[in-house]
Amino acid sequence: xxxxxxxxxxxxxxxxxxxxxxxxxxxxxxxxxxxxxxxxxxxxxxxxxxxxxxxxxxxxxxxxxxxxxxxxxxxxxxxxxxxxxxxxxxxxxxxxxxxxxxxxxxxxxxxxxxxxxxxxxxxxxxxxxxxxxxxxxxxxxxxxxxxxxxxxxxxxxxxxxxxxxxxxxxxxxxxxxxxxxxxxxxxxxxxxxxxxxxxxxxxxxxxxxxxxxxxxxxxxxxxxxxxxxxxxxxxxxxxxxxxxxxxxxxxxxxxxxxxxxxxxxxxxxxxxxxxxxxxxxxxxxxxxxxxxxxxxxxxxxxxxxxxxxxxxxxxxxxxxxxxxxxxxxxxxxxxxxxxxxxxxxxxxxxxxxxxxxxxxxxxxxxxxxxxxxxxxxxxxxxxxxxxxxxxxxxxxxxxxxxxxxxxxxxxxxxxxxxxxxxxxxxxxxxxxxxxxxxxxxxxxxxxxxxxxxxxxxxxxxxxxxxxxxxxxxxxxxxxxxxxxxxxxxxxxxxxxxxxxxxxxxxxxxxxxxxxxxxxxxxxxxxxxxxxxxxxxxxxxxxxxxxxxxxxxxxxxxxxxxxxxxxxxxxxxxxxxxxxxxxxxxxxxxxxxxxxxxxxxxxxxxxxxxxxxxxxxxxxxxxxxxxxxxxxxxxxxxxxxxxxxxxxxxxxxxxxxxxxxxxxxxxxxxxxxxxxxxxxxxxxxxxxxxxxxxxxxxxxxxxxxxxxxxxxxxxxxxxxxxxxxxxxxxxxxxxxxxxxxxxxxxxxxxxxxxxxxxxxxxxxxxxxxxxxxxxxxxxxxxxxxxxxxxxxxxxxxxxxxxxxxxxxxxxxxxxxxxxxxxxxxxxxxxxxxxxxxxxxxxxxxxxxxxxxxxxxxxxxxxxxxxxxxxxxxxxxxxxxxxxxxxxxxxxxxxxxxxx
Length: 898
What we know:
By secondary structure, the chain is of the alpha+beta class. Helix content is 38%, strand content 9%. A six-stranded antiparallel beta sheet has the order 11-10-9-8-12-13, with no helix packed on it. A hairpin with a 2-residue loop joins β14 (499-501) and β15. It is globular, with a radius of gyration of 34 Å. The model is unreliable at 205-211, 452-459, 462-477, 580-602, 621-629 and 878-891 (pLDDT under 50).
């Protein structure tokens, strides 16, 4: 086998698997002693990941037996030819280690080096130690430096804003999120890492990105992180991504499958929170580090809670076992005085060991009333729950743990169970043992989507998919329901069928969907006033507020409001001052006098008087009835409830995504719509440049403030070209010429003019080429001082449109995957091919920009490019040309020689 062969990994797995099997056999035979888990079972004797193998045994003597020449490791080395390198093998002992030499650190029994707690050992890239602070410090010691070095290397390449966003996600953030999943960094470290990544995405601010935003990317992070179809660019947020990876661990804890780490985590949660245990993940309790005493466990719990899961099954629709499984404390459906029950307010629950509805219902007897404290808790339950808890019920599924079978009570079907993942398969011929004991169990269903075809898909009709970065809730794709055994109802902590997000239960958790949900929840907090709704998209800032009800006065457009604010910032600053200062609130300067600064003589108090005054000043605990009510979100309502999927905002972003604009043009359009283009007025508004640099540099503008309207439509170097673009779209779409309003080019419509329905895409492509040409020439003038004219803008627009048209025609007539020289099966995404009818609907409107001619027989179709500076209309610098210009010479593309 040659080096780098794909067979090497498979062959390695074949040779290393007998080592793990032999260790398990020796453990079962009693030759080795495993580490006992809280439930009485033994932890696996080994853990294998890629080419790393670790042993988990109880004592150094067991390690010596496993490493001996006749032990499992020695036999494996003799059979496979592998060699054990003791100098690269380290050990970690939890508890006292008398056999370890304090000078050399070598264990006298096993011969393995056990470093001190101050020198953590590295396992799978994570430093482990009995001192958590030492392992944490060493894990992140060089991480920030590595991110800075990598960002400096990538900054040498000329990348667009979207290109830097991709690098930030695939390269920079991936260096951090893996470590942060296991060992979450400090808040200050997170801030420094995030600042480095954000500064890299913001770029140096040259050429296509303009003058830069002072090291801060615009639009804001909560907008750019949204999915493409909702008005963002899916910009990575390392902290959210790391927290969602941690949330995945917590979600796996509630999902089917038996694993040793689940036993440990459940035990630690029950020990820290006896009233909840793993149910804290869906409770209304805000967990602190003081309660869990473990930063890593706290990160798992908080990461899951911040996704804000909600009930998929309403409280009055819960089945009997689901009601009996409900927790009493921190349950937002069990309220006392408007607040969930807390153990410190009801000590009787802890005395009786009653934490669930089932345990409380077992104490209810018709002849013997409950004690008053427990009766108060019973009265706090919903009436439907009290009735359901006291009635007998018939289970839907039953489990026979001895035989490993699950039975559906109604149909009698038998299913075999896989203990590793809870998977169930029909077993009609399974033999039942005599006297089998069946217990009620919980069964969930996981929807597995149909696998996508790779490489050879049909040509795209629109030229691009919707660019969706979130999971779709629609049932367009075929899926099959796979039953999974969650466990016996007496051991189930949280029913994964009753909780979830949107329309998906806990079994459908994915890091990608959780990250999108976290971004959506943040956008809802940061974009009030109806500017954003999940699935509906973010409303562009140039659109202004939502339309008022009928009969109300029409508010000004978002462009007018935005530029008015910029102009106000410009006018309120004195002409000779530098950058605009930040006005501080008066409350920051209101400082009270210290006792020694107060007038008159200060009276001295004794020690006991000061202690009494201090105790009197401390807040006293109040009973639950008179405590301040804390408004908790309703756990039956989805905090990220989707809006209208056919809204105008979503249609705009989907249309921009499907237009297949070049990245530079997409960036310009995107930033203009969000009001974050780096024109002089905006840079002065965010205090990046002084007042004297915020004006247009054209000689004829005479100190005019450079706003979006001025830079792209009103400047004398641009205005004739803007009028020419309006005449071009009128000729292409056979519609009236749009009015000379800034909203027409910046927003797409305005002044009562709207592009015809069949010309929306070509108008978007034409606008994108024009605006990018203006911005590129403006940036060159700002950097080099070289002026430009309207004719140069028109020529750059024609060149950009022609280049995009040629690119789309290549997608029609050529196989880009075949031209790559690679296996088509490697391209598992959307096919880059473009259908001919899609090209016609995009470009060939009335044959103005181009004409498509069908080929005879098996010949390919050909195209004639007709768009030039003189056709279909000439810009104003060519006004001296005849009114009816001759048709340009045909430019043939395609055919046998293409």
